[in-house]
Amino acid sequence: MKFIYFFPIITLSFGCVQKNKIAAEYFENYFRYQDSIRKDFKEGSVSRILYGNPEPSDENEFVQTGDSLTMGMRLVKEGQIYRPDMLDFAPTVTPEAPYGIFVEARKHYFGEHPIYKIKRVTEMISPELSVIDVLPHIESFLDHIRNPLAGDLTTVSTLQEFLCANLECDMVRDEKVITLSYTLSTKTRENFPLAYQKYGKRLEQAAFRLQLFQPGGFSNGWEIYNEGKTIYLTIPASSKGYWAKPKSIHARFYLTLSVFGLKIEIRGLGYSLRFARNSRTDMVSGQFTKIPETKVGGRFLSIFPPGFVNIFIPGNMQEYFENYFELLVNGSDGNGGSKFVSITHRNGRRTKVVLTSQSEILRERFLPFRSKEEEDSPSFVSELERAIVQDLYGKK
């Protein structure tokens, strides 16, 4: 479900040539709310519940009503900061409490496997903007990089300036494809040593490939993938305006993960996003659409890294992933797995965004990257978010 968060970030990361102060205010507020949650709850039980990923050890943090486990939270503005206010009911957002989350979990079974059925509702008062408004930024970005006479991206984008100040950047342009690359380097290690260690290790353990394309337009789709510590973005040629107003975008995800002596291959996990706009309402919806092929090999080594907490190793890894993706794509009853709908009710300064997600997850989960890790101060992620906001404001 994190895809709805990462999609606009991906869009903005490669599309901040066009400036938009309303978008800047929207993401400044959103990042501030997430930062408040991270700082107050760290990576503990409450944080896991609020983001829709509870574990059995977290259940005492819920309010129990019958067979329903619930948690409510709103952020209340106090001066220049936001304070979390925990509730046992669904919060109502106001200008003084502009962000709220309500999570409901029910215990259930998928065959003999215990699961949670989760419904999560997030509400936010925002400037009059939705994800649909961000999509045209892609076209401005493409116009710039396709023009051989245009200036370097770092001269027009604070975000690209930040990325290239902390990563090794390159762009290769030919008639059919433009490829951008970003590599963890000595600059990363000097400026964000803990992030370099964290992301460097994960990029060495995981080889991923994400394909984004419109229906019938796979050859025009983008690919984001890594080779070791380098992340690549390949952009094929497409007609002008092709990415400005898509009705839907499909995604395919591939991953090879090498961890604890295991080699886990996931091939072709499908996801679809759909966009609709009418009068004063924008709607973005998404759901997983294709069960991937999975293959588990290697030899498990019971050597855990420092700080690893509550690791769960399934007895049959192949069966575990088959069940995991069956729940993700189809759900326990075959009527659809993890899905979301985000509705933006446009009303000027009192525009409200309501994101409702539903998911079914195994209660015991394999979490290979679950550990308590220190962050740089300021962290790479917080500085990246700050650069996105500055870029959209047009600040250099």
Tally the structural domains: 1
How many strand elements? Answer: 16
Distance between the termini: 33 Å
What are the secondary-structure elements, in order, as H or E?
HHHEEEEEHHHEEHHEEEEEEEHEEH
Rg of Cα set:
21 Å
**Low-pLDDT sequence parts:** 1-5, 301-310
In DSSP terms (H or I, runs of 4 or more residues), the helix count works out at 10
Report the sheet with the most strands, covering strand number, pairing sense and barrel closure: 16 strands, antiparallel
Average pLDDT reading? 88
How would you classify the quaternary structure? single chain
Q: How would you sum up the global shape?
A: globular
**Structural class computed from helices and strand pairing:** alpha+beta
What fraction strand? 35-45%
Name the helicity range.
Answer: 25-40%
Organism: Leptospira inadai serovar Lyme
Protein name: Lipoprotein
Describe the structure.
It is a single chain. The chain is of the alpha+beta class and 396 residues long. It has one domain (3-393). It has helices at 3-13, 21-41, 45-50, 131-134, 136-146, 158-166, 186-191, 193-205, 317-329, 380-393; strands at residues 63-65, 68-78, 81-87, 99-110, 113-126, 168-173, 177-183, 206-213, 222-227, 230-236, 248-259, 262-278, 281-290, 293-298, 339-345, 351-362. It has a 16-stranded antiparallel beta sheet that branches. A hairpin with an 8-residue loop joins strand 8 (206-213) and strand 9 (222-227). The radius of gyration is 21 Å and the shape is globular. The model is unreliable at 1-5 and 301-310 (pLDDT under 50).
